[in-house]
Design goal:
Blueprint lengths: L1 H15 L3 H4 L3 E8 L4 E3 L1 H14 L4 E10 L4 E9 L5 E10 L4 E8 L1
Parallel strand pairs: 1-6
Antiparallel strand pairs: 1-2, 3-4, 4-5, 5-6
């Protein structure tokens, strides 16, 4: 289960770099990304969606508040504070599903 926390932590470190090249090795070919604005399926579409986020909100970053693992289905639950600017942030919960080595699904909920 520690490998799931490590993979999720690496994902957030890469995401915080705002560099899709760092994200690519962590994403499976059939990865999905769903949030309140985005519903993308497949590697290229998810990479492009992340690039749009980074282009639209330069410097966006996710602060990890807590993470927990449901080992039965290889899922990480991450409570985040997403910093949109120096003065604006939103609370988000990411549900990240993984296979043995890559992320297969990211679902983000604002609240």
């Amino acid at each position: 289960m520690n490998h799931l926390i490590n993979l999720a932590s690496q994902y957030f470190t890469a995401w915080n770099s705002n560099d899709v090249e760092q994200l690519k090795p962590m994403l499976s070919e059939d990865v999905t990304l769903v949030d309140w604005d985005i519903n993308e399926q497949g590697f290229d579409a998810v990479v492009a969606a992340n690039q749009r986020i980074f282009d639209t909100v330069p410097g966006i970053r996710a602060e990890i508040l807590s993470m927990a693992v449901n080992g039965a289905d290889s899922t990480v639950f991450a409570q985040l504070r997403v910093h949109i600017s120096d003065t604006e942030s939103i609370d988000v919960v990411d549900i990240i599903t993984c296979n043995r080595t890559q992320i297969t699904s990211i679902k983000a909920y604002k609240g």
